[in-house]
Amino acid sequence: MTQEIIIATGAIFGMLSVIFGAFGAHALKKTLSNDQLQSFEVGVKYQMYHAILLVVLGFNFESITSAIYWCFTIGIILFSFSIYGLVLSDAKGKKMRFLGPVTPIGGLLLVIGWLLLLVNVI
């Protein structure tokens, strides 16, 4: 991974997090229940937290390995985007249940990314 790719990935996820957060707060506020909106916001928050982390790690390029990058990148996609899909499909009355097991796999990849980062700095 190059430094530019890591920073660009973080920037794209950060930008999308702002867009999805605004979309959830404004366009979906009337469509989603409070529980659905809170779940959607969890996806947005975790996406932003890890986007910021990728940008910071990109600027500290020596501290990131390819495995760390991929764990965070795939983890964001599986965790946050599966939550978005579950919430939006549930709001439409056609919940995509196959996404249910995807969310914890994404969460596990995020945890592994953090563990690899810890091991890398030790």
TrEMBL record:
Where does it live in the cell? Membrane
Keyword Transmembrane annotated: yes
Sorted keywords for this record are:
Membrane, Transmembrane, Transmembrane helix
A family per Pfam: DUF423
Tell me what topology the record assigns in the membrane.
Answer: Multi-pass membrane protein
Q: Name one GO cellular component term.
A: plasma membrane
Record-annotated membrane-spanning stretches: 6-28, 40-61, 67-86, 98-119
- PANTHER family for this protein: TRANSMEMBRANE PROTEIN 256
Tell me the protein family, please: Belongs to the UPF0382 family.
Report what the protein is called: DUF423 domain-containing protein
State the organism's lineage. Answer: Bacteria, Pseudomonadati, Bacteroidota, Flavobacteriia, Flavobacteriales
